[in-house]
Amino acid sequence: MEQIKLHDKVFERYIPHAKIQETVQELAGRVYEDAGRQVPVFLVVLKGGMVFATDFAKHYPGEMILDYIRVKSYSGTRSTGQMEWLIKPSEDLQGRPVYLLEDIVDTGNTLAFMLDRLAEYNPAYVKIVSLFHKPEAYRKDIPLDFIGMKIPNKFIVGYGLDYDELGRNLKDVYQLKA
Ligand code: IMP
Ligand code: MG
């Protein structure tokens, strides 16, 4: 299927599932090298990071702890900049290496908010692992540790990413048709 319609918008197939898998596997290897023999805590950023995190976990060759956080920050196709902590970490992060598993870093607003709040848990460090990144939209100076793919500043759906909650279950990633 090359084109799909979600709500009122049409999307075109952009990144095939196989390419995504290759990227996720490579990311898992890079993060494993970084974490060394430590047991990292992976904080899955719900809901968008869920599908990515599931595949990432399967490719991660070492011991790991999975936990979940959720920040609500987005409605429709534009970032609103307003944020709310909906699910806080449940594991003890004190002194532990923490990696955020994100679907995408766009403006960086969500990321800045999460890093600010996570500092209160006194982790050894928090590093960022994001499958996608839109450099043209990025408004922060925070260095991004592990990025799967840099993409242009266009709205995408699929593989966890949604357009008003639809499209998360698509295996491929689709881009909004101009
Ligand atoms: P940021 O705060 O602008 O960096 O946006 C972060 C969140 O917005 C991401 O975690 C996604 O949930 C969502 N988001 C940003 N860009 C897209 C997109 O192209 N498609 C779907 N969701 C997006
Ligand atoms: Mg997200």
For this entry, give a set of tags.
about 180 residues, alpha/beta, 6-stranded mixed beta sheet, 3 helices, binds inosinic acid, binds magnesium ion
Q: Spans with pLDDT under 50 lasting ≥5 residues?
A: none
- Give helix and strand order, one letter per element, not per position: EEHEHEEEHEEEE
Q: Given this structure, which CATH class is correct?
A: Alpha Beta
Radius of gyration: 16 Å
Can you tell me the number of structural domains?
1
Count of DSSP-assigned helices: 3
Strand content: 35-45%
The biggest sheet amounts to: 6 strands, mixed
Mean pLDDT: 94
DSSP strand tally: 10
Shape: globular
Oligomeric state of the chains present here: single chain
Residue share in helices? 10-25%
What is the CATH third-level topology name? Rossmann fold
Structural class: alpha/beta
List cofactors, ions and other ligands.
inosinic acid, magnesium ion
Widest sheet: strand order? Answer: 5-4-3-6-7-8
Q: Which CATH architecture would you pick?
A: 3-Layer(aba) Sandwich
Intertermini distance? 18 Å
